[in-house]
Request: fold
Amino acid sequence: MARVLRVLTQVTGWACVAIGLLHVALGNAALPGATSAGATVDSWGRFMGAAFTGYGLAWLWAARQHPIPARAVRWLAGVLLLGGVGRLISLAVHGWPHGFQIALTVIELVMPPVYFWLADAEERAAATGGGGGPGTGAAAH
Reply:
């Protein structure tokens, strides 16, 4: 389980960094299904892209710790879940978005429980002497 946690935190981090940078670079053009949203939404989207890049960097920071801190994983997963809830609110208020946004909503609602379940996998492995990957455990500090 510790290896799964490490891979998922790295993949999530890199995906968020890539998506965030894409939004910074492309603005409105990075939004599937969005036509001309105007300067205000473009400005907001590029800013949020930078914030999402930072969110991805936080995942990558967590993935570089030995062991991966469960508390950080839970907080980051909670933010992801909050994003999914926000999308559900938007769906209820404004209706169905582009299909890609629906796929993202599913990911944002499904992955946090997985992260909550796996969050302490490396800490548990390190505490029981089971390791959790290279460089884990008390000797790595």
The chain has five helices and no strands. The CA atoms of residues 73 and 129 lie 21 Å apart. The first helix runs from residue 2 to 26. The helical segments are 2-26, 38-64, 70-94, 99-118, 121-127.
